[in-house]
């Protein structure tokens, strides 16, 4: 499919702001309260999936740093495609570990699926619309 679709630059900006906000918030949470995140992983039905990747404290801190950086970079529109891909790679195991074991109709599972869709939008389209391109001086 090679059709073009015009979208409002304001809608792309709003999507960028909302999407980056959740990753900045999650990154800060991972860095300030890693023990809470680790306990959520240990309590999750599919915790063995996360344990497969290594030491939980290191994984939580690393994912927190990457989500914080990725969220900030996405907010400002620098290398949106690559940082969206990085965030997607982080979000998939989080979704499998924490959300999948709670059932198909569990709201946070669908929130993560929506986040994956938004990240795929930036990966596919790589829009250059940022806060800076929208400011009229």
TrEMBL record:
- What keywords sit in the KW lines? Membrane, Transmembrane, Transmembrane helix
Major place of localization? membrane
A single Pfam family it belongs to is DoxX
Q: In the UniProt record, does the keyword Iron occur?
A: no
Query: What InterPro entries would the database entry show?
Result: DoxX (IPR032808)
In the bilayer, the protein is annotated as:
Multi-pass membrane protein
Cell compartments where the protein resides: Membrane
Q: Where are the transmembrane segments?
A: 12-32, 52-75, 82-98, 104-123
> Can you name this protein?
DoxX family membrane protein
Please tell me the species this chain comes from.
Paenimyroides aestuarii
């Amino acid at each position: 499919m090679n059709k073009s679709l015009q979208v409002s630059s304001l809608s792309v900006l709003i999507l960028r702001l909302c999407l980056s906000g959740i990753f900045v918030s999650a990154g800060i949470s991972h860095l300030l309260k890693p023990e809470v995140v680790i306990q959520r992983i240990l309590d999750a039905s599919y915790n063995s999936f996360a344990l497969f990747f290594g030491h939980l404290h290191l994984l939580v801190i690393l994912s927190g740093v990457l989500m914080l950086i990725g969220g900030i970079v996405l907010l400002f529109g620098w290398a949106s495609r690559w940082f969206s891909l990085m965030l997607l790679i982080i979000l998939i195991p989080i979704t499998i570990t924490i959300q999948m074991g709670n059932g198909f109709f569990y709201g946070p599972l669908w929130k993560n699926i929506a986040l994956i869709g938004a990240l795929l939008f930036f990966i596919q389209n790589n829009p250059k619309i940022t806060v800076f391109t929208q400011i009229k001086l």
